[in-house]
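Checklist before submission:
- one chain only
- standard amino acids only
- sequence pasted in full

Submission:
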Amino acid sequence: MIEILNLDKKQYPTGFSAHLIKSNENALLNKSFRSSFYQMFWVKSGELTLNLDNNLIHLDKFECSFIGINQVFSVETSSEFEVLLVCFEEAFYCRTDLDRDFLESCIFFNSQQALKYKLHNSLKKAIIQHHQSLLHICRQPYNELMYHFAHNTVERLLLFTQKGLLDKSYSPIETFKKSDVNIANNFRKLVQENLKNMRFVKDYADKMNISVKSLNEICNSIYGKSPKKIITEEIVIESKRLLRYTAMSIKEVAFELLFVDPSNFIRFFTNATGMSPKQYRTHFEDKRVYIPKQKPIPVANTITK
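Returned file contents:
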């Protein structure tokens, strides 16, 4: 079964947590999860493989990766490892509009592919020190000063990561106008949040109070793809999640994703992936797990502190 992870607010009232994950004493291995918070982690020793929405990414020592809200993920390994993990909710980080704009611009949480990068030697010690500071804060009673200190520490980690990826030319975002970047990121976030309610570019443009033409120009300039293409890619990702991780019939999946006729969904999915929904589901049948209809499990009960 896929476990739905939430931060335990009694244990982590500020909406963030830090953990040292060890392969030989943790319940996260070889299970599938979906979380309501952001996750950043750095491999301190060993190696592992992250399956993020069916994208496999192999991580070695001193490499980093990231998991966004509602992404389905699992961790596998054939060797021992230690991972420095930081989790935080959107509400924890977004104190101001500036915070929200920066978080939405973080390319590693907004990419449709799993990203990783290797820490530069100059950052290794800083990452470990920042993580130790967050571990210490997690063990202290809540107070306003510690919240601000934790926020600033998480912000520095995000800045390290964003700069590292931009320096390696993962994205040209820094060359565009800030207003256009905000519009593009806001559009992508709206698509992820409203995929089962809104399907047309005009609906999103109207919601954002801009013209379809402007939205097309901005998305093509920043992402190199049209808004329609972005919506299509998100539908494919969610289709794969529902087919692989739920017991819904193909007809039910089609209706869930606003396809009036299941045959249209089958044709859409086949054109996009090269296999029918049935073939895709059969391909993963042996490893299939299901999203349970149950109360989400607090992350404190699943992740070793």
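Reviewer check: The chain has twelve helices and eleven strands.
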